[in-house]
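---------- Forwarded message ----------

FYI, see the NADH dehydrogenase [ubiquinone] 1 alpha subcomplex subunit 9, mitochondrial record below. Original note from H. follows.
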Amino acid sequence: MRYQALGKMAAVVRCFRVPATGLRSPRTGRIGSQVVIPYRCDQYDLMYLRPMGDLGQLLFMEWDSHDKDSIRRALEYSNVVINLIGKEWETRNIAQLSREVGVEKLIHISHLNADVKSPSKYLRNKAIGERVVREEFPDAIILKPSEMFGREDRFFNHYANMHWFGGVPLIAFGRKTVKQPIYVSDVAKAIISAIKDPDAKGKTYTLTGPHRYLLYDLVQYLYAVLHRVYLPYPLPRPMYHLIARFFEMNPFEPWTTRDKIDRFHTTDTRFPNLPGLEDLGVVPTPVELKAIEVLRRHRKYLWLEADLDEAKPARTVNNM
């Protein structure tokens, strides 16, 4: 299928992981965009992306995120830049060079719980990233999604994989943590809407799902969808961190880290004065509608094709 070009050229910086998966889908191509994808990995890791756009729609460019000339080459022909990088120096360089080369819109993906005082280094970096983006590119659009779920995510899949360990460790049983996860495709739709919306410049949007859940109840629902026994147990943060240090010694990607523990046990912040997903014309997708998409592969064969309706929806705490 071919799509009519609309004159938009977008550079998607750090095109990996879940949010980028939504951007790389044909959804971006349907609005007629050319997409520049700077990469730092082996080019063969990107081969599966090539069929996702029409001829000439996806442009791959090897780059060094610490080299300003390399960044400039990746951005100079784009009128929209979508930044998924959270580290301070890389974000500052991207924002500064986006302004210098005349980029019309810079969309910076942060996090709902970004806070310089957070125990999570990831969330601290996201908070610093927001600040430097505003300094270097005042008209930037900042999107603050909560934890995202979708195929190949690192939130629902993380807890689903815990069945291999026989139980699910949660700080304070997960009863002191409130999460409001968002479906990854909703984030991709919000980015597309922000590109099209002329009034979005300079605004910060919070992107969350429609319901809030205690972490305990949310993980319980995930295991109900899996048709697996849910065995939660409380684990003090220092002990959890000690176990995570063991996993961090893995030369490959660790199963968990101290930073991930702190991030997943941070209650999602409310920002009543900031515009949200609905202000971008996107209706948030309930967890109960899409959880099976993520979790089916974790089921036993007996329940592989079982209906989702058999799982009781998680209890919501929208007043917390």
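H. also flagged this: Residues 171 and 300 are 28 Å apart (CA to CA).
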